[in-house]
Amino acid sequence: MRVLRYKVVLTHSEEGVSISCPALPGCWSQGADDAEALENIADAIKEYLAALEDMHQGEDIREVEVAV
Predict the structure, then answer these.
(1) Can you give the residue ranges of every domain in the chain?
(2) Is the pTM of this model over 0.85?
(3) Of 2, 3, 38, which Cα lies nearest the Cα of 21?
(4) What are φ and ψ of residue 40, in 5° steps?
(5) Per-residue pLDDT tens for 36-59?
C-alpha cells in the first residue's frame, strides 16, 4: 500500500464543514465537524483515484516524485 498526501481546504458554515482537494478537481466532501470532513475526504480521494485508474486502464501510467 502506498501513502499519498494531499492538501485539502476546509470551509466552515452553519451547516457543517465542506472540504475539497484542489489537486483533484471535483473531489470534495463534507462533514458535521473537521474530523468527520477529513475522514470523508480521505474516502472520496480513494474513490477518485480508483476511478482514474479504471478510466486509464491499459495506458502507460507512471509516477514522479517531487520534493517541495
Answers:
(1) 9-54
(2) yes
(3) 38
(4) -70, -40
(5) 999 999 999 999 999 999 999 999
